[in-house]
Amino acid sequence: MNRDKELELTRLSVEIAQSRKPYMDHEEALIPVANYRDPARFERERALFARSLHVAALSTQVAQPGDFITVRLAGTPVLVVRGDDGQVRAFINVCRHRGATVELRDRGHCKAFVCPYHAWTYRTDGVLNHVRHRSGFPTLVDEQASLVTLSCLERHSLIWVCPDPERTIDALDEPTQQIAEELGGLLGPQPTIAATQDKQWQANWKLIVDGGIESYHFRIAHRNTIGKAFGDTDSHYELIGDHVRSVLLRRSIVELADTPEEQWNLREHAQLLYTVAPNAVFLVQRTHVEMILSEPLAVDRTRIRLHTVGRAPGPEGYSDKAREFLQGNHDFTVKTLTEDFELAEQIQAGMDSGANTHYRFGRFEGALTQWHRRLDQRLAD
């Protein structure tokens, strides 16, 4: 984020905090409960996910040639690897012989990938390299039996992958490029994962998003964790293409009214929350970033991978003190977000009761309204 944008956001933040009134930029909206529980709509959303670029990993997760990770994006098993030429590539993690999973490990380092079923072997650039008893496959053409390539971009310390092999994407669109640049600056050089939680929640993926882009619930739902540190419904947002940048204000933000602008540091007095369509959320805190990656599994089930990301460690890795600090922050974030996710599960469980046909978003929950309308528009398109 450049300095002019930081100052612009900080000025608005101070103004909101001084007014002691919620930031209202939208009319009330009613969102059908069916949007969260309709299996047909969920399949349309999954299809939209499949056509989109996802945040798949940090560049540092595959830092050296031969480093790889495996993930699932929109139901597709994906293998991300840095090749011998230094380029990051992504493939469908499925053998071209009989369809077994080629690489079963979550992460690692290797010179080639060997299918555990019949040992067909693929180079790190995805090319089929060895077939046992090759004479039994007289019509086999290696180039046609290589791993299926997926569009993969490495930009601003992040790796982006589209899980649809029929789509070719060679650049980020302008709004995503803006988001990527801001995140790259906030993540800093060589952002490194210090701790991870991987868990499934019994809730529609949109409920997970809803809980992050409004601060109306902070004082109540988070009264035992972060509630006292933040103002009551003190936040503002900007829709950037399909994405949202939210600014969640700490109570201390009012102190900046009497501080020269050249001394302003927004991260000291607010949390920045980037909701990056379709699958990622970045919670930017004072000293580190939480990277939250979602995978919708069913209309009422979502897998969440929460990574606590620190700035570049030293040549020997994080010191004991730094590791303890990051782990402590990770544990606290898990505790806080669990409060959100458990509420999402409660909401999902209550949908079948028929108590509500619609959910109501208030005038100070404009980010929710805008985000849902943008999603509806993308589904219609």
Structure description:
The protein is of the alpha+beta class and 381 residues long. The chain folds into two domains: 3-51 and 174-380, Naphthalene 1,2-dioxygenase Alpha Subunit, Chain A, domain 1; 54-161, Rieske Iron-sulfur Protein. 28% of the residues lie in helices and 30% in strands. The chain contains nine helices and 20 strands. The strands form five sheets. It has a seven-stranded antiparallel β-sheet, sandwiched between helices. Strands 6-3-4-5-10 form a five-stranded antiparallel β-sheet, with no helix packed on it. Strand 7 and strand 8 form a beta hairpin. The longest helix is centred in the last third of the chain and has 31 residues, at 320-350.
